[in-house]
Amino acid sequence: MTTTHAGRQQSTTQHSTLRAWLGVAAITASLFVFLTTELMPVGLLTPLSSGLSISVGAAGLMVTLYGLSAGLGVPFIVAWTRHVDRRVMLSALLAVLAIGNLVTAVSPNYPLVLTTRLVMGFASGVFWAIGVSMAMRIVPGRHASRAAAVVMSGISVAAVVGIPLGTLLESLTDWRTTFLIWSGLSAIVFLAVACTLPSLPAQNAVPVREVFQLPLRNGRLRSVMVVVVLFVLGHFGAYTFIRPFLEDGSAATAATVTGLLMIYGVGGAVGNFVAGHAVTKHLRASFAVGCTGLVVSLLLLLTLGNGTAVPVGSLALWGVSFGVVQLSQLTMTQAAAPDTFEAAMSLNTMAYNTSIALGAMFGGLLADHLGVRSVFWFGMVLTAAALLVAITSGRLRRSD
Fold first, then answer.
1. Domain count, the chain
2. If we measure between CA atoms, which residue out of 39, 26, 112 comes closest to residue 70?
3. Nearest CA among 52, 6, 27, 394 for reference residue 195
4. CA distance 72 to 349
5. What is the C-alpha to C-alpha distance for residues 231 and 225, in angstroms, rounded to an integer?
6. What is the radius of gyration, based on Cα positions, of the chain?
7. Which of 29, 216, 359, 400 is packed most tightly, with the most Cβ within 10 A?
């Protein structure tokens, strides 16, 4: 009887653990569809501008408005829904994403596309604030960090597979079909979340007033937010316009751009893996090395970007560097506010996505008035500024 009971208990534990990791996989898939939806226009700027009869800079506003709503709305929504079960919340967010991609695919005009992207951005921002903490909660405590790393790997998968795949699908069909396919993927992930995640009552959520007081009371968190803003402005200001830059500078075809974006994504996966080992011991140095790599890659593209070899090497370095910086800045946020992680992540999401929006907006203005190359100079200067702040700020050291 004792042996039988122990066997049943072990079987139940294994089943529970398996379901927990299936839930982590569903959250990772959620990150994949949210991020690819947010950045899909990056690989489709040229056909979007042609299909909607707008300029490339105006097409970049699809990223801008999405980022603005994701950034500015998240602290309020997370705080206002602090009593809502997080499984229910994530399911609702994925429903918004699926419907939004469907509306984008069939939209007859540009204003409706922008309005839809604005609504979808709210859903994306809330996911970024709650997704990682959800994954950390559904697995045994000793595996929480591993679960977070698995979820964040969705960023690399999106870069390696999602965005390049979207570019390839557009070249084989059209941009409307691409968004229609992503609507279907979002619906599949919705079902996965509903079937695998347990009930997750909200934890560590605080009222709106307290969320915005965190940087005032926490100087280390405040410094992290400054660094995040500068880095994201620089990186995404340039990255949003990578396709027109490559097409202008090296006469790259759609297939070439797809290949280069995949190289960038593979580099991001490598950088994420390397950073996973480095940030725990050398957090500040990891961030500094990653930013340096970003600056060097942009400089190489600007000075030696003609041809094929330099873009391949530069995009690989860019991807590795971004993977390192991305994981470093998330780790810095967690280290700066471990007891209010969800609230701190909502602020991180606000800073991050608002900066994506502003970077795309400033990049669009520069691209339309001074040419696409000016956007890359803008990106290099802002990334260098983030590096300078990281080096000089004593608050960005690894927590004990």
1. 1
2. 39
3. 27
4. 9
5. 10
6. 21
7. 359
For the chain, which residues score pLDDT lower than 50? Answer: 1-15, 395-400
In-domain check, residue 4: no
pTM across the whole model: 0.71
- Which tokens belong to 350? 């606000």
CATH number, position 150: 1.20.1250.20
Judge contact between 127 and 31, C-beta under 8 A.
yes
Rounded CA separation 33/146 (Å): 21
In a domain, 300, yes or no: yes
In a domain, 51, yes or no: yes
Tell me, what DSSP letter sits at residue 81? Answer: T
Residue type, 340: T
* 390 inside domain: yes
- By residue range, what is the domain housing residue 138? 14-396
- The residue among 276, 296, 301 whose CA lies nearest residue 286 is 276
**Which tens digits make up the pLDDT trace of 237-258?**
888 888 788 877 666 677 777 7
Chain segment 147-186, per-residue pLDDT in tens: 877 787 777 677 667 777 888 888 888 889 999 999 999 9
Please state, in angstroms and rounded to a whole number, the distance separating the CA atoms of residues 106 and 187: 17
For residue range 219-237, list pLDDT tens digits in order: 788 888 899 999 999 998 8
Region of 199 (left: φ > 0; alpha: ψ -120 to 50; beta: rest) is beta
Residue type, 174: D
Contact between 240 and 367 under an 8 Å Cβ cutoff? The reply is no
- Chain-centroid distance of CA 215 in Å reads 22
Q: How many residues does the structure list for the chain?
A: 400
**Does residue 21 contact residue 144 with C-beta atoms inside 8 Å?**
no
pLDDT at 168: 81
